[in-house]
Amino acid sequence: MDTDTITKPHERLADLLTSEMDAVNTLIRTRMASEHAPRIPEVTAHLVEAGGKRLRPMLTLATARLFGYSGDHHIRLAATVEFIHTATLLHDDVVDESAQRRGRPTANLLWDNKSSVLVGDYLFSRSFQLMVETGSLRVLDILANASATIAEGEVLQMTAATDLGTDEAVYLQVVRGKTAALFSAATEVGGVIAGASEDQVKALFEYGDALGIAFQIADDLLDYQGDSKTTGKNVGDDFRERKLTLPVIKAVAQATPDEYAFWERTISRGRQDEGDLDHALGLMEKYGTLDATRSDAFNWAEKAKAALQVLPDHEIRTLLRDLADYVVARLN
Amino acid sequence: MDTDTITKPHERLADLLTSEMDAVNTLIRTRMASEHAPRIPEVTAHLVEAGGKRLRPMLTLATARLFGYSGDHHIRLAATVEFIHTATLLHDDVVDESAQRRGRPTANLLWDNKSSVLVGDYLFSRSFQLMVETGSLRVLDILANASATIAEGEVLQMTAATDLGTDEAVYLQVVRGKTAALFSAATEVGGVIAGASEDQVKALFEYGDALGIAFQIADDLLDYQGDSKTTGKNVGDDFRERKLTLPVIKAVAQATPDEYAFWERTISRGRQDEGDLDHALGLMEKYGTLDATRSDAFNWAEKAKAALQVLPDHEIRTLLRDLADYVVARLN
Fold this sequence. Notes:
2 copies of one chain form a homodimer. Chain A is built from 17 helices and 2 strands. In chain A, helix 3 crosses helix 7 (113-133) and helix 10 runs parallel beside helix 17 (315-329). Chain A is globular. The mean pLDDT of chain A is 90. Chain A has a two-stranded antiparallel ribbon. Chain A has a single domain (4-329), classed as Orthogonal Bundle (Farnesyl Diphosphate Synthase). In chain A, a hairpin with a 2-residue loop joins strand 1 and strand 2 (104-105). Chain A is an all-alpha fold.
């Protein structure tokens, strides 16, 4: 791959889908309005208008276009996906007691936890209305299942994060709930509404699933070896917040009794002293878990690209392939 | 009406629907299970198995039977309605910072707010899967709209509760969100799944809506004039928690400047002293707002009964009529 093809393919997607994304944004603004409860659009606007790459709704628009869709249900579905995403961010920030999101104070900080919980519920119910309007039971089934995977993954993350018994299988499930389930639902419903065949819908699911997993593994790896200037996060935030992610899970799996005691103290019990992050990084180095995690991310990106093979040869397909490269190119 | 017909009609409904309610309870237990996140069934069981009258799922079973339904989708819909109800209770207790529910410590107290938020989300997504299984877009539409009314009502309640500008129209909307929207969805979907005509479905909506409103107004009135032995609540809890309900809204509407200043201090600003509840009760007495609220509750119960007229003559219809009498009979 040359540098150009992996330069911000989501921006090239955004260019290609400008008028449809405009329609999605208009629909989002219309549907987040509430005649009676002004708190709702205030909170939603704070988050929705903070930007974000709108990757998920773009995936829905892109896959619908890949199959030559000419109706307008993909606009509704793209807005649906963005509403679900926004609702989960609102609830996540309450659960994680976060103070910042996308470089701005979180809604739970600006208003309160109550507003974040209830406005999240409202957006979820609005997304539900939007998808019902498409009249497609298949789409509803996909989104209902994705919602359950997301919610179960969140609960699992809450209980598994500091539990050293968490293995790679549990991690993968948390990652599916946290990121991949909505990516794969986004790509699937675009194809379904456009009348893609069963094989193609399956491929769209596999692409979205693998893309989401590659994306999240890359994020978790960058937490330990990223440049804080480009990631906007400090190295070791996950360690300090006692979040078990793949680089640590791989190190725990190979730990000597002394090393296990170290992870037990710092992650399970959360008793961290100066120098512990360096020691943790040393253990990851010792077992090569950062490199192994990096390989995993690249493997998932390859899986995503492989899934695209059964899809029609189309400009969009090329962009989706480049997007899979791009989410892991950050690791080079 | 004689005393017998208004004696606990929900218990007579429960008798009549025993085997179907058993099936609903089995389905609830199956669907609240999570292979991976044991926290989910723990939290759900705490609430679901604490009892409660299961009024909402019974309404769905009852209206399906009223139209001679012989399939099993009404079981799924009854479980759906109970899951939505349970999810809203979990989120409500977080928002209200409640410590007790149904005579037991709340989930947010026993576990934490995070668990209540995320398990609530999980139950909502499970309810969504259950309703999709019925394959009825009409049912999905009704439940999506009810969810939006519920969520909007909750946000409205949060922002309107201590605002003296809250009038009876806003109160009614909060009550619809809090109680009536799920009652009316419960009665409607039972009829829809059983193939009731449009007129009959409309009547089922009107019955559920009016029943829910009567029920909530009665609850709000009992807060000021109930016997704490039978209601299990202390007189004036809503006043102390600065919740504007109908008896106070009616008194505020007629207040002299001095009285308005009293409501302003005690409700809007929450500065309450000893004797304030008695003074508040005195003002409600002065303007007869407790009696007026009582009349409103009875009027809604009459509306509920009137809606039943177009429904088939059936044992269930008699029980639904008695139920409307029962929710306000507590006020005698």
